[in-house]
Amino acid sequence: MSLLKVTDLTRNFGGLTAVANVNMTIEKNELIGLIGPNGAGKTTLFNVLTGIYEPSTGKVELTVNGKIKDISGLKPYQISRLGLSRTFQNIRLFKDLSVIDNVKIGMHKDIKYGTLKAITRLGNYYQEERRIEQKAVELLTTMNLISKRDHLAKNLPYGEQRKLEIARALATNPVILFLDEPAAGMNPQETAELTALIKIIKTKFDLTIVLIEHDMSLVMNICERIYVLDYGRCIANGTPTEIKHIKRVIEAYLGEEV
Amino acid sequence: MKNFINKKNLSWLALTIAIYLIVLVLMKLKIINAYYQITLMTICINIILAVGLNLIIGVCGQFSLGHAGFMCIGAYSCAVMTKMIPSYWGMLLGVLLGFVISTLIALIVAIPTIRLKGDYLAIATLGFAEIIRIIVLNMDVTNRAAGLSNIPKLISWPLIYAGVVLSILVVVNFERSAAGRACISIREDEIASEAMGINTTKYKTIAFVIGAILASLAGAFYATTFYVIKPDTFGFAKSIDILVIVVFGGMGSFTGSVLSGMALGVINTVLQSFSAIRMILYAATIVLIMIFRPKGLLGTKEFTFTGLFALFKRMVKHESS
C-alpha cells in the first residue's frame, strides 16, 4: 500500500489544463523529485495536492494509520493536519514576526489548550507554552537558525528564509514534506549545504519528501525517483539514471531535433 | 499559581491599582468634577471599543466597519433590562443579554461575510450595522426613533474601570496565545497560515465574536452613563469614530489603542471651548499626527514591564561604565 496515490488528476483553469491526467504513487520514506520546464504545472500539482486548489477531476488518496483516505477537495488546513506540509516557491513567511514565532505557528495543531484557557490563563496554558517553546528551540537548533531566534523573518538573508520555511513546515510534524524549489536563488555552496540538510531531516524526522527543483545537481544527487512533467502531463518517471536517457525528457528540456 | 506571581505581573497589578486610586482621590477632591467625569467615562468606553476593534483589524487583519452595530445591541439590551429592573442585577442581566445577542448576531454575520476580504468585508459589516440600526428604529420595545430615556444611571468609576481592565486582559491574553498567534498569521499571510494547519475561518470568527462582545459591553456602559440612547447614536459615524481611535493608536498595538482613546478624549474635551470650529481642529490634529506617524502613535509596539526593566538595566550599566 503506497503512502500517497494520485489517480488521473486534472486541474483546469477555464480552457487551460494546467495538470492533465497525472498518476503518481509515493512510498513511505521515498525522496521524489518533480521536474519539468517552466510552466509545466509542477507548482499547480503541489497546490492541488496540498488543497489550495481543488482537483477538477481525479483522486488523491493518503494512507493514514493503515487506512486509505480520499483527501481530494479537503481544505488546506485539513490536509496539513493529516500530515502534508509544504514550502512555497515565492517564500511566504510571516515576515513581521520573529523566527521563533514563525515556527510556533507551525506547531499550532499540536497545542492542547483552547481559547478559553488562553484568555483566563487557567489549566495547562503555561505548561503548554513552555513545551512549545522548547520544541521550537530544538527545531531551530537542528536547522542552524537558533542564533537568529528573535530576528524578524524579513530581515534574514534569502538562504536562511528558505531554511526557516522548511523549519516551519517541519513544525507541523508532517508525514510528507513538499518542497517547492528549495534551492532557488542559492549559490552552489548553499545548495550543497541544503542538499546535506535535506538528507539529515529526512532521516531525523522519518519523512517522505517530494521536491520541485531546477538545479539538476541537487535533483540527481538526492532524489530516488523522478517524475517529469511537460504541459501538465507526466511524461516519464524513474530513477535519475533512467530519466537522463529518456528521449522525451531531453526533448522537453532542449526541444526536438529538426 | 506560581505562574501568576512574578515581577512583571505584580508591576501590572500595582499600576492598575495606582491608576484606580489616583482617579478615585481626584474625584473625591473634586478636581475631576461632574463635567470631567463624563469625559472620563467616554474615554473608558472608547478604550473598550477600540481594543475590541483592534483585535479584529490590527491583530487578525479583518477590516470591519460594523462595530457600532454591536455597541447598539449592548446599549439597548442593557437599557431595556435596567428600565425593567432598576438595580445592578438588572444591569448585569442586560449586559449578559447583550453578550448573548451580539455573539449570536456576530456568528450569523461572520459565517457568510468572513470569507470576504478587505473592502468587501468592510462593506458587508457596514451594511450589517445599518440593518441593526434600522431594526432598532422600528421596534416598539426600543421605542422607535425617539429612543430610550431615563435609563437608571448605575455606572460608577469602580464598575467601568473593572470593565476596562477586564477587556484589556481578555484581548492581551488572547493575543499572546496559540489562538492569537493563529490570528496574527492570518493577518501576515492567509495562504501560508492555512498551509500550517490553521482553520482560518474559525479564528477569524473567534476574533470577530470577542470584538462584538466587547463592543456590546461598551454599549451597555454607554447606556447607563448617558441615560439617553437613540438609534442615530450608533450610525456609520460611530463606527468610523472607533476606527479612528484604532488607526490613530496603531493597528495591532493595544497600548496604542488605550493611549489614543485617552488622547482623543482629552483633545475632544479641550476643543469644546472652540465649539464652532471643533470638528475642523479635531480632524486637523488627526491629519497632522498621521502625517508624522503614519503607522499610528505606537505602530505595532506594546508597552511591557519586561521591556522597561531591560531599559533600566541598560541605563544603569551605561552610567556605571
Structure description:
The complex is a heterodimer of chains A (258) and B (321). Chain A contains 10 helices and 10 strands. In chain A, helix 3 packs parallel to helix 6. Chain A is 38% helix and 24% strand. In chain A, the strands form 2 sheets. In chain A, strands 6-7-8-3-9-10 form a 6-stranded mixed beta sheet, sandwiched between helices. A 4-stranded antiparallel beta sheet of chain A has the order 2-1-4-5, with helices on one face. Chain A is of the alpha/beta class. In chain A, strand 4 and strand 5 (67-70) form a beta hairpin. Chain A has helices spanning 42-49, 76-81, 99-106, 115-120, 125-142, 158-171, 188-204, 216-222, 240-244, 247-254; strands at 4-13, 16-26, 31-35, 57-64, 67-70, 84-86, 176-180, 208-212, 225-230, 233-238. Chain B is mainly α and 321 residues long. Chain B folds into 2 domains: 1-32; 35-320, ABC transporter involved in vitamin B12 uptake, BtuC (Orthogonal Bundle), CATH 1.10.3470. Helices cover 74% and strands 1% of the residues of chain B. Chain B contains 13 helices and 2 strands, in the order αααααβααααβαααα. Chain B has helices at 7-28, 34-59, 67-84, 88-113, 118-137, 157-175, 178-188, 190-195, 200-226, 236-249, 254-270, 278-292, 305-320; strands spanning 148-149, 228-229. Chain B has a two-stranded antiparallel ribbon with strand order 1-2. Chain B is globular and about 70 Å long. The two termini of chain B are 39 Å apart. The relative contact order of chain B is 0.16. The mean pLDDT of chain B is 90. The A-B interface holds A 50, 52, 75-77, 80-81, 85-86, 88, 92-97, 101, 104-106, 108-109, 111, 113, 115, 118-121, 125-126, 128-129, 132, 168, 171-172 and B 3-4, 170, 173-174, 177-182, 184-185, 188-189, 191-200, 206, 300.
